[in-house]
């Protein structure tokens, strides 16, 4: 049943991402890649989780009301997502000579045409990538590499569902916190988000945190990896080859508690893993594409996901560094144009 709930959540997150991008792309000529639907949907879901977590913690909104609000938010985000998916399918089917049927025929047919051969290689790499992803999802859903040392996300989520209270009950002792909790910790939304989603899906909270959420996170990691590689390399075959390399490195790096491969396979529900493997790559991609509103969404999502120093984290400093590099590059390029070197 775990893969079923994982697929169900993946569809919901993907539709939310498609809905967000459909709204953001209404007045833009350059449409965003469909491979960003899942990563952007995950960011959107985290932002909604942060909103209802703040409502429950600081405004004393009841858990039941937050649960209903989350359900409404997911539905409202999925509605434009359906239009976005339908629009993308229509473009794929009727985009001149580059139709979906034509591309599939090029993959199947045997020929010497260079473009058709490239599509065959792309199809083969896609199958290999999906097989590796399927193996990893199976291992995660079985809890083969589960690592929870030093983490209490599942305990807090269970406490929120059981007592219908946000960060007021000690999950280990079952009594109220006598001295309270730091406000910065209360602003972290993942335990509340997981609690709300597990109730909506009617699944055990612990199973949801440890097995269902990682399925979506791992899928989002490879989708944003493909988008970033395609943006840099300008070649889908090379980009997909990079994704396969990343998938292999996740297996190879699954040998130590501090390795990214181990954390992604064993603790993909943690905020640090989501930040390092999804939010930061997505931010870099959005910065390169000049999608600054999405950059802001990534920064806010990090602030409500990881306990950062005054919310700065990694994304805001990276934004400053990349901004300075971009300005210096433009200045150097302008001087070369002025001197007639270009």
Commentary on this structure:
With 342 residues, the chain is mainly α. The chain has one domain. 73% of the residues lie in helices and 0% in strands. It is built from 14 helices and no strands. The protein is globular. 39% of the residues are buried. The mean pLDDT is 83.
Query: How many separate domains make up the residues?
Result: 1
The radius of gyration computed from the alpha-carbon positions, rounded to a whole number of angstroms, is: 22 Å
Low-confidence stretches: none
Structural class comes to mainly alpha
Average the pLDDT over all residues and give the rounded result. Answer: 83
Query: What multimeric state do the chains show?
Result: single chain
- Total helix count? 14
Helical residue percent band: over 70%
Share of β-strand residues: under 5%
Question: Tell me, what's the shape?
Answer: globular
What's the end-to-end separation, in Å? 60 Å
> Tell me about the biggest sheet?
none
Topology:
Elements: H1 2-24, H2 37-58, H3 63-94, H4 100-108, H5 114-142, H6 153-163, H7 183-186, H8 190-201, H9 205-233, H10 236-252, H11 260-266, H12 271-288, H13 292-303, H14 315-339
Helix pairs in contact: 1-2, 1-3, 1-9, 2-3, 2-8, 2-13, 3-8, 4-5, 5-9, 5-10, 6-8, 6-9, 8-9, 9-10, 9-12, 10-11, 12-13
Short note summarizing the structure:
With 342 residues, the chain is mostly helical. Helices cover 73% and strands 0% of the residues.
List the main descriptive attributes of the protein structure presented here.
342 residues; mainly alpha; 73% helix; 0% strand; globular
């Amino acid at each position: 049943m775990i893969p079923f709930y994982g697929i169900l959540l993946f569809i919901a997150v993907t539709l939310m991402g498609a809905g967000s991008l459909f709204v953001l792309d209404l007045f833009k000529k350059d449409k965003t890649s469909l491979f960003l639907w899942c990563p952007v949907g995950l960011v959107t879901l985290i932002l909604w989780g942060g909103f209802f977590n703040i409502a429950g913690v600081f405004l004393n909104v009841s858990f039941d009301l937050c649960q209903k609000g989350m359900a409404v938010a997911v539905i409202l985000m999925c509605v434009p997502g359906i239009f976005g998916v339908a629009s993308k399918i229509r473009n794929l089917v009727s985009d001149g000579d580059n139709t979906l049927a034509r591309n599939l025929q090029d993959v199947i047919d045997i020929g010497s045409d260079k473009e058709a051969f490239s599509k065959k290689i792309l199809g083969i790499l896609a199958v290999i990538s999906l097989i590796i992803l399927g193996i990893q999802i199976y291992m995660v859903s079985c809890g083969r590499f589960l690592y929870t040392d030093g983490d209490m996300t599942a305990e807090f989520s269970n406490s929120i569902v059981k007592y219908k209270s946000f960060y007021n009950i000690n999950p280990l002792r079952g009594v109220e916190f006598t001295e309270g909790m730091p406000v910065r910790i209360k602003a972290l939304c993942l335990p509340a988000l997981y609690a709300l989603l597990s109730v909506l899906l009617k699944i055990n909270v612990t199973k949801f945190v440890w097995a269902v959420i990682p399925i979506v996170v791992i899928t989002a990691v490879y989708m944003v990896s493909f988008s970033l590689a395609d943006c840099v390399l300008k070649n889908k075959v090379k980009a997909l080859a990079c994704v396969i390399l990343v998938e292999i490195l996740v297996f190879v790096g699954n040998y130590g508690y501090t390795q990214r491969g181990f954390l992604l396979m064993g603790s993909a529900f943690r905020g640090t893993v989501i930040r390092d493997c999804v939010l930061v790559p997505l931010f870099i991609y959005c910065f390169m594409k000049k999608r600054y509103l999405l950059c802001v969404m990534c920064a806010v999502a990090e602030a409500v996901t990881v306990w950062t120093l005054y919310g700065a984290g990694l994304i805001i400093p990276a934004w400053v560094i990349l901004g300075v590099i971009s300005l210096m590059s433009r200045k150097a390029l302008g001087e070369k144009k002025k001197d007639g070197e270009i």
